[in-house]
Amino acid sequence: MNEKLLKTIEGRVDDLVELTADLIRFPTINPPGEAYRPCAEYIGERLKKRSFGVEYIRGEGTPGDTDRYPRVNVVARFDGRSPGPTVHFNSHIDVVEAGDGWTVDPFAGVVKDGRVYGRGACDMKGGLAASIIAVEAFMDVYPDFPGAIEISGTVDEESGGYGGVAYLAGKGYFSKPRVDHVIIPEPLNKDRICLGHRGVWWAEIETMGEIAHGSMPFLGDNAVRHMGAVLQAFEEELFPALDRKQTKMPVVPEGARRSTMNINSIHGGQTEDFRPGLPSPNVPDWCRLTIDRRFLLEENIAEVKSEVTSILDRLKRERPKFDYDIRDIMEVQPIMTERDAPVVKAIAQGIHEIFDREPDYVISPGTYDQKHVARIGHIYDCIAYGPGILDLAHRPDEWVGIEDMVQSAKVMAIGLDLLLRGKTR
Ligand SMILES: [Zn+2]
Fold first, then answer.
1. 287 CA from centroid of ligand 1 (Å)
2. Model pLDDT for residues 84-126, shown as the tens digit of each residue
């Protein structure tokens, strides 16, 4: 055990709590992308005092980027005394809207009963604060460490990461030789290592029809009924088939250990805002359906798509007047970092030392910024590891446990030590 490192972290609990509460007080709500710049600057100013080189990088022209809501990211780097690998801690600073049902002010950084409350407490300002405390303690105990440490606070993870990690990865911030190991302190629990996530295919299907008077539907062609035929085929064929596709990926919760598809939305005919409270008098000539298909390492995206398009093509052959369009909205490949990857082994050893047990290895049902690190940056030595309970994310009275943050900070510091100084104690 590295007593000195762990004791140093224990001595900084107040700092850790204050840092977490301060971060929560920036209402970095996305959308629209509120308070990104002051939050990034707060992180940058703190690390500048520690002699980090600090850059603010705006995701110019990315979705939502305007002068009112600039997509400002912060990347801080500290080079050690001698060459060596770089460890990068990446946290998103954006949070989702507070919503209703809170018993505390979601942006006050309330501390009570051993917890810090607020929107983003667990997802993921607590993890960001824990990583900063871990890094600072490590640098104080081992000022002569080799290699380099980076800490970033990035935007827009909650809306796809285009102005944040994706933008930075496109500029080389998440590639070799600059970076070797990436840890993303998302709230996956202090004793679990998240190796990756399932894949995503979002698409919009449109059926067409022909407008006519609602009293004489036989004169037109009803696009909503065509979509009904699509949904019926999904119910009868596709959903049962997806249920049967199990995966070896250790996805949590277990219900997500198979292929899934959500119908996100369906719209057809004249919109309600056009005639509030009144039904449309017409035969609808269009209907659009959005699907969110989550797929597995064992599947490939071409097959995933053809399962859907083959149903649509068959309807086109068999159902009179049926025609459709399909448009991709988003594609993400599934990812699973190897268990013997250096960053996995280093954090596993930290968990072993702090909790005296082996970590659980998990896969997230949904995606997070690891996709951009892998796909654009080509860094595969990447995991999510951080304090907080995922189920609390995005909910009212979100909180992070102070002791959980302290323990995770210790695990991160031990992992950092192993990756940079390469010593196993
Ligand atoms: Zn998150």
1. 33
2. 999 999 999 999 999 999 999 999 999 999 999 999 999 999 9
Q: For residue range 349-402, what is the model confidence (pLDDT) as tens digits?
A: 999 999 999 999 999 999 999 999 999 999 999 999 999 998 898 999 999 999
From residue 173, give the alpha-carbon distance in Å to each of 44, 117, 124, 379: 16, 32, 21, 11
The three-state DSSP-derived secondary structure of 104-123 is CCCCCCEEECCEEECCCHHH
Cα(394) to centroid(ligand 1), Å = 9
pLDDT (tens digit per residue) in 131-154: 999 999 999 999 999 999 999 999
Query: What ranges do the domains of the chain cover?
Result: 3-197+334-421, 200-332
C-alpha triplet 7, 12, 18: angle, nearest 5°: 160
User: Does 200-332 match 3-197+334-421 at the fold level?
Assistant: no
* Ligand 1 midpoint to CA 195 (Å): 15
Separation of CA 144 and ligand 1 centre (Å): 33
Could you write out the DSSP letters of every residue in 174-240? TSTTT-SEEEE--SSEEEEEEEEE-EEEEEEEEEE-B--BTT-GGGSB-HHHHHHHHHHHIIIIIHH
**CATH code given to domain 3-197+334-421:** 3.40.630.10
Helix (H) or strand (E) run with residue 258 in it: none
CA of 324 to the centre of ligand 1 (A): 36
Pick the CATH number of 200-332 from 3.60.110.10, 3.30.70.360, 3.30.70.100, 3.40.50.2300: 3.30.70.360
